[in-house]
Amino acid sequence: MENEKDLQTLDDMLFEGKNKAYGAYDLRQKYSSHLSKAFVLGVSGVVFISLSSFFVVKSQTKEVVHEDKPYTVVDLLDWHEPRVDLPIEEEQTPPVKQEVFEQVVIPEFVEPVADTKDIIEADVPTKEEIETAVISTIKQEGKASINTFENSGPIVQEGLSIKVPEPPVMPKVEKEFLRSEIMPEFNGGLKKMYKWFGRNLQYPRNASLNGVEGRVIVTFIVEKDGGISDVKVLKGIGFGCDEEAARVIKKMPKWNAGIQNGKTVRVRYTIPLSFQMN
């Protein structure tokens, strides 16, 4: 009885006093055999699939036969481009045109003979007479002068007086200011100035046809009386816009002049004019 208890398995101990015919006990008893069968079947399937694939691939692969062809080993370091002898064209020399020169006959030397016919004899003044003579436009006997280089003033002769003209007086250019205490201003302010531009500025036809837009920067001087002078285009866009901007600036009415130290002065002014198509 004691030997039977020692031979009891874990399953017998778990199902002791229970209904072993229910099914669970039978499954646990056959679990090891089922596991061994499953392992053998799995390994057999893997081996079968591998061998089948190997034989299928081997049967479809054609053996490639490599033909032994002669080849040449080229050393790239010692390789030179094969020389090709090009045919040399002989230069054809154009024929030299031979010029024929006519023979020139040189006449014999003839000794010159002085011709005394129609010779007018005249009295040639001496060196002393030339040094003491006075230049004049009237043909008459000249008056002797001791020092011909002496500045004796205007040359006065009978019926003739020549005055030396005085040098021209250069006009004085007044200084222009870039800024003044009171800057020059369009009569009515900036708003009225740009309204005036809107009424008088015309869009150039060439710029309109080419779709040109942009700003033209113009500089000018506001004179002491408010007038406009020295109009220059600093930056333009072309197509007639630069010329139109300069034309309108020159056409502006007089401004209120700039003031510096209580006096009206010339002031350099710069404004931009925009050309935009609506």
UniProtKB/TrEMBL annotation:
Record has Cell membrane as a keyword: yes
Membrane spanning stretches: 38-57
Membership in a protein family: Belongs to the TonB family.
GO CC, any one term: plasma membrane protein complex
Main location: membrane
UniProt subcellular location: Cell inner membrane
Record's keyword annotation contains Transport: yes
Domain of life of the organism encoding this protein: Bacteria
GO terms under biological process: protein transport; transmembrane transport
Keywords: Cell inner membrane, Cell membrane, Membrane, Protein transport, Transmembrane, Transmembrane helix, Transport
Bilayer disposition of the protein: Single-pass membrane protein
GO molecular function (one): energy transducer activity
Family annotation (NCBIfam families): tonB_Cterm (TIGR01352)
Source organism: Arcticibacterium luteifluviistationis
Pfam families for this protein: TonB_C
Domain TonB C-terminal: 188-278
Name this polypeptide is given: Energy transducer TonB
